[in-house]
Amino acid sequence: MRQILKFKWPIAIALIALTAVLFVLSPNLTKQAEDAGTFQLPENADSKIAADILEEAGVGDETISLVFTFDEPVNEDSKEKVSSIAEEIAEEGSLIKEVLDPFESEEMSDQLVSEDEQTILLPITVDGTDDEVNELANHIRQDLIPDNTTAYLTGESIINHDVNESAQKGLERTEIITVVLIFVLLLAVFRSITTPFIPLLAVGVTYLLSQSIVAFLIDWIGFPVSNYTQIFLVAVLFGIGTDYCILLLSRYKEELTEGHSVEDAIVNTYKTAGRTLLISGLAVFIGFAAIGFADFPIFKSAVGVAVGIAILMLVLFTLVPFFMALLKDKLFWPSKKSASHKDSKLWTSFGRFSINKPIWSMLVVAVIMVPLLFTYDDQLSFNTVNEIGSDYESVKGLNAIEEGFGQGDSLPVKVIIQKDQDIVTEDYLPYIETISKEIEKNDNVDSVRSITRPAGDVIDDLYVDSQLAQVGDGLNEATNGIDDVQNGLTEVQNGLDNISNQIPSSSNAGGLEEAVNGLGQINDQLGSISAGLQQSQNVAAASEQLGQVQQQLGQIQQGLAGASSDLQGQAGQTSELSGGITELSKGVGSSIDGLDEIKNGLQDAADIVTDMGNSKALRNTGVFIPDGTLEDEEFEPAIDRYAFDEQKAVTLEVILKKDPYSTEAIDTVREIKETVSRTIDGTPLEDATVAYNGVASINSDLSDISTSDFTRTVIIMLVGLFTILTLLFRSMIMPLVMIGSLLLTYFTSMAISELIFINLLGYDGITWAVPFFGFVMLIALGVDYSIFLLDRFNEEASIGIREAMHRSMAKMGTVVITAAIILAGTFGAMMPSGVLSLMQIATIVITGLLLYGLIVLPLLIPAVVVSFGKGIWWPFKSKK
User: Fold this and answer.
1) Residue 621 · residue 593 · CB < 8 Å
2) Residues 604 and 547 in one domain
3) Of 89, 121, 149, which residue sits at a domain end?
4) Is the pTM here over 0.90, yes or no?
5) CA dihedral 853, 858, 861, 862 (to 10 degrees)
6) 467 touches 624 (CB < 8 A)
7) Under 8 Å between Cβ of 447 and 456
8) Which of 118, 431, 495, 829 is surrounded by the most beta carbons within 10 Å?
9) Higher pLDDT, 318 or 95
10) What is the secondary structure of 776-794 as a DSSP string?
11) 645, 668, 693: which is the final residue of a domain?
12) Per-residue pLDDT tens for 6-64?
């Protein structure tokens, strides 16, 4: 320290100059956080895989929605207005890929106009960066929507932009409130106008330097970043930075009061309070550095605080001594009295009780905290829109869609199936339909839209039972047709028989009698064919037999033509009968044509039945798609909408009954994944890549990843803290007591936060990222206060365990309570931010710090320590 004081001016100038240069040259941390995005999922997450598939296939376009709301059902004027706006938007340049006019067709209206016709959805497909999409949204709002029209723009990029904007506004408010609050608190603690500026200046330099270095690390090595990075840098650095400054300045003033020279006072301060500060800083550094082992980028982004802690240590051991040496006792002007290390009356009273009656003290803590633990449900919320409230247009648009079309229709779950070959074929689509059918069986699924059910409704004609019913109807029609032919031939037969009786025996028309007899035989054959078709439904045999009958009828028709020709050459009545024979011959011809139609119909039915029999997909799914179906114009829109990547991939849109942001939706996504996995097992699609997209899918991934990452990171963090504390305190029991007491405080704080935000304020849960960040903040920061107490206890241990604990509590009580109030105050500055997750984290940290400083530290830890006696240093040698 004396060397630092010797070169204090060069060191201070170099540090301040470095801070200024890096601040000017460093990238914009706020912009980096916005570019990183609200949700940063690992590469193996289903939603990330789905996004990559869409992006690689060139269909990663985003759809934003312009939502119109009307007080009454839409009329022609309203329709024209919406269609006109759709046309204007479509002409806005290359960013616009497609605009769906709700009134372009009846089918489009069914999907994009609500049942009450008071909400109209205008989907706009765009391809661009988030910034470009939001610039377009602003242009549409300002220039294309008439003033007298109620319309909202919403979509994933717009919602995320609003979340980022809300977070940045919250950060600005937090910074201002934090500085003012700390100044006021320091003014109250030191009763000096000068003193508050030193911590604020030291922490300010730390914050600016930390922010710059973190920004460079993000650019250079891909350091993790999110909206939380900057906010936590502010809260943690200003909080513990001020605490550490109080510890140093209080001890420095005490040293001056005892008559030491300025240099000796500084050196003594850093030998005593500086050691405690190093232990505390190291523990906090390890706590935040452990976050670097997380896989989840959003969790990992708080590791930037570890960089800030390291820089804080540098500033506290260089810049703060500079001001101590420069200002000397004027650092505390105009205060004359020592404001440091006054015995804490509150902790002294608590100490007498906890040390003399440890069992009762532990019971008091249990009575206060254990009942709260039983109320803790770990109820999480994944509702992003809660972060920013309902004042933002994107949220209003989302709410309008939910009211008009249902909650699930606003943000469907997308199931993406991709193979390395064309799957939009008659062989694969039956399996796609089966997947759709199985998903729809879920009680929380409203409908499924896919190629085989583009409007979400089942197409019965694709199912074999319906198709066989149609074949059966065709056979009945064929049978009826044969009966009609029989009746026609009977009339021809009767007519020929009548003509034959009128022809003189001497006339050359003996062929008529043969024709009459032949028609009779043919009618008998047709009757047999009809009966056989009804009984055996042997379509192929019936078709073949009808072909033979046609040949016979052809011969009869030729015979009748010859007879008619012969009669025309004769005189009198015989010649007149020729015309009648000609008409009857036409009737035979009509019968031949009728049989030809019946035969072709039976042949088509036979082909379909044969194809059904050869279809493996039909046997597995009960769905059959006849050849040529996919070439039908009616199928083209469905293929265009739900197939991509040269028809190697398809999308299924699952409309949920529940709010897509709800925990029920997350559970439903998990069930859908299980259903799809089970359904494709053993099918031609079992080796296909299956991924899931949409808000509920993203939240499902967030839930799974955050839970596993939380557990792993917390274990690493606690093991790291336990190891370093064991080495520093030469005890395994003390670290266990510290960590155990902090865990008790954390879960109690979580329970209190649930009571406030869920039971009292009516939110559907604690924001999913809050438990992790709340844990890290409370454990890493709260361990400081136990270090303050137990490090002093170790120093005093030679006078006896009980006496050492009494003295330590009296001396450190004021420091701990003051530090806890200041740190709670800096987190309290996050409350007016308006960002729900920050408010919840602040509530957990504030509640935890106050519980720890006023109940756990003064009542529980002394009681546990004196109960262990000399065993508190196990397995190392006792201090006494």
Assistant:
1) no
2) yes
3) 149
4) no
5) 160
6) yes
7) yes
8) 829
9) 318
10) HHHHHHHHHHHHHHHHHHH
11) 693
12) 899 999 999 999 999 999 999 998 888 877 766 667 778 888 898 888 888 877 677 88
- What's the DSSP call for residue 443? T
Handedness of CA 631, 633, 637, 640 (dihedral sign): positive
Residue 407 included in any domain:
no
> How many Cα atoms are found within 13 Å in the side-chain-facing hemisphere of 877?
3
Report the SS3 class of residue 321: helix
Local structure of 207: helix, strand or coil:
helix
Residue 110, phi then psi, degrees to nearest 5: -60, -35
The band of 499, judged by pLDDT with boundaries at 50, 70 and 90, is low
In contact, 68 and 82? CB cutoff 8 Å: yes
Quickly list DSSP for 546-599: HHHHHHHHHHHHHHHHHHHHHHHTS-THHHHHHHHHHHHHHHHHHHHHHHHHHH
Q: Are residues 769 and 828 in the same domain?
A: yes
In a domain, 399, yes or no: no
Q: Which two tokens stand for residue 749?
A: 């704080």
pLDDT of residue 508: 47
Sign of CA dihedral 100, 101, 106, 110: positive
Alpha carbon 661 to its chain's center? 8
Sequence-distant (6+) residues with CB within 8 A of 476 are none
* Dist. CA 450–CA 432, nearest whole Å: 8
**Which residues are registered as beta bridge partners of 445?**
656
Per the CB < 8 A criterion, the answer to whether 209 and 22 are in contact is yes
Tokens read off for 201:
């200046």
Q: Is residue 702 within 8 Å of residue 768, measured between CB atoms?
A: yes
Other Cβ atoms within 10 Å of 75 Cβ, number = 11
Backbone angles phi, psi at 150, to 5 degrees: -90, 110
Same domain, 581 and 660: no
Question: Is 456 contained in some domain?
Answer: yes
**CB 760 within 8 Å of CB 793:** no
pLDDT band at residue 298 under the 50/70/90 scheme: confident
Residue 138 sits in a domain whose CATH number is: 3.30.70
For residue 737, what are its two tokens?
Answer: 């007591």
Of 849, 804, 798, nearest in space to 351 by CA: 804
CA torsion 573-577-578-579 (nearest 10°) is 120
Are 682 and 773 within one domain?
A: no
DSSP state of 183: H
Total domains, the chain: 4
Could you tell me the two tokens for 368?
Answer: 């206060």
CA distance 186 to 199: 9
- Cβ distance 562 to 582 under 8 Å? no
Q: Is residue 377 domain-shared with residue 516, that is, in the same domain?
A: no
The separation between the first and the last C-alpha atoms of the chain, rounded to the nearest angstrom, is 31
Cα 49 from Cα 45, distance rounded (Å): 6
C-beta neighbour count of 68 within 10 angstroms:
24
